[in-house]
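Researcher: I need the complex structure. Ligand is adenosine-5'-triphosphate. Inputs:
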Amino acid sequence: MTGALKYEWVRIRTIASSYWMSGLAIGLSAATALLIALFSSAGDIEELNIVQFTSWVVTAGASFPLIPVLAAPFFATMGAMAMGHEYRYGTNKATLTALPDRVAVYAAKVIILVGWVTAAVAAILLLDLAMAWLFMSNPTLSSDAIRPVVNYWGYCVGFALAGLSLSAVFRNQTGAIVAVLVWPYVIEPIIYGVLGAIGSSSDAGIIRLTNLLPSSAGRRSIFDPYELAGFGGAIDTWGVGASTLVFWVGVLIVVGAGVASFINRDA
Amino acid sequence: MALIQARGLSKTFGNKAAVRGLSFDVVPGSVTGFLGPNGAGKSTTMRLMLGLDNGEGVTTYDGVAYRDLKQPLRHVGSVLDAKPFHPTRKAVNHLRMLAISNDIPTTRVTDVINIVGLGDVANAKPKTFSLGMGQRLGIATALLGDPSTLILDEPANGLDPQGVHWLRNMLKTLAAQGRSIFVSSHLLSEMALMADHLVVVGRGMLIASGKMSDFISTSARNAVVIRVDNPELMTRELRARNAAVVTEPDGKLAVTGMDSDAVGNLAHELGVRIFELSNRQATLEEAFLDATGASEEFRASMGFGAQQPGLGGPGFGGPMAGAPPGYGAPPPGYGPSAGYGAPPGYGSPPGYGPTQGYGAPSPGYGPAPGYGAPPNQPPAQHASQDGDDNR
Ligand SMILES: Nc1ncnc2c1ncn2[C@@H]1O[C@H](COP(=O)(O)OP(=O)(O)OP(=O)(O)O)[C@@H](O)[C@H]1O
Ligand SMILES: [Mg+2]
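Model: Output:
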């Protein structure tokens, strides 16, 4: 296992794309935080809203429903590359002759990726905080921001793991990147639309099935409490705990499929 | 440690049996050539041996399966693909990454880069590498752990003549140190110079395994060639004594199944006058074509059989009829030679290194004046070199 960890640690540090992806994730998030911070100090914001605004800034807008988790696609791509490169460039045979214990290889990829993404998310949060303190007139951080921040990290990690595992399932990097991006931004919205249409015309209960869409559930788990309150009601949306659970069940299903594929199939 | 024992290797893709019940040994102190037509299952066999493909059978390295080897790169080095690396990860980093996975000191990375002659491009990105340079990087990874066993799938593919020469000398030197070298190649004249043992497969099945000299001696192309004053009588009497006789276009008789002494004595008894008598030794290529003729899977429409007059005379049986008699098990009494062992430490073993004068392929690197096939490398070899692209 230590051999696999050392291998993976060198692997992730010796390709430019690791730095590109992390840099873009950090840069784009910080820029968004900056914009929200500037926007909040420009206008006249009530006391309640300043707490909300601060939470938006520290999550680079992600706790506000209309701004996506901008960093997630980059981490998902990094994840897809962690395994996809091996198939794309045929290094998987060299890797597995050096490290025949496939479980260890997979586990090492997961551990190093999670560590890397965690460090990058920490950098994002620190920069976001800096933006709040530097550019907001009176930033107010309440304990309400803790849960969105933690789930923001979880969302990024979950997408990175999904990218990694999808490339193990497809044994193809491009396919994995497409899938991990198309799912949250195309497939789930389509399902939302279809279920919504059915729900409004005939069976209103069917719309509750949208609670089971993992990416949307993960997204909701980041919303700040006020937005989340407004979001529920009409369509009977599940709470934060259940939504977080749905997200992680979705991630774990993909990870399980990736592990099974990686361990059992020909290299 | 270096004895490889493959037992009952089988692999099916869909309903296509790529490897069927292959068993063979690769003994220490030898270069064992792995031969077979395209699609015969050589690469699949090597992947099975390294635990990369799921199939049946076991391969052990001094009794231990690959997956159970601790730090396997220190025991078995392998090259399976022509360009198995990320195009933008520096060559030195590629090697460091693999080295650290098996706790191989980084100083060894510099050593192997120099051994394969890539010292000047160690910090270059492999996307700029030619096929041969990529192959050298692959060989460098195989040598990283100073392993006692090497498994190489067409390592000469893409190498220039100097590179082929260098590889041959290196593998022979490594074998002489008591290591086991298992190498596939379609370059038969190269193999004839390099290997002392062979494993020959066709359509996934074993055709022969054992000493190269034994393999060649079973070829129908080995013959006693005679020119006599009464070929009809001679032919009849030879056949009556169970020898096979082929009349060649020039009227000479090619006799198999009887040695030259016996042929000479018979002629004497019959009062037949001999004008010429010689022993003709088959080449590895001839023996290989004989042995694998029937198992060639992808036969070109203008097959090379047509260019082999005289091939296929009596006594030339299809290989699928079975391995030649007495073939199969490695010779008894075989074992690691005395004093065998990996050299201590990590220094490059004495006696092998980049061919003198071969630097990193610099820009504008091209054939030297008067550059041609070195002796021992007939031009035909280069023609075939282009054809055996290892996928
Ligand atoms: N991944 C795969 N999926 C399906 N079939 C395969 C796969 N790999 C190999 N085969 C089939 O198995 C057979 C053996 O292939 P293999 O590559 O082992 O042959 P080979 O002896 O190495 O040939 P070559 O001399 O051309 O390199 C071929 O018929 C090939 O089509
Ligand atoms: Mg092959």
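Model: Summary of the prediction. Chain A touches chain B through 26 residues (CB under 8 Å).
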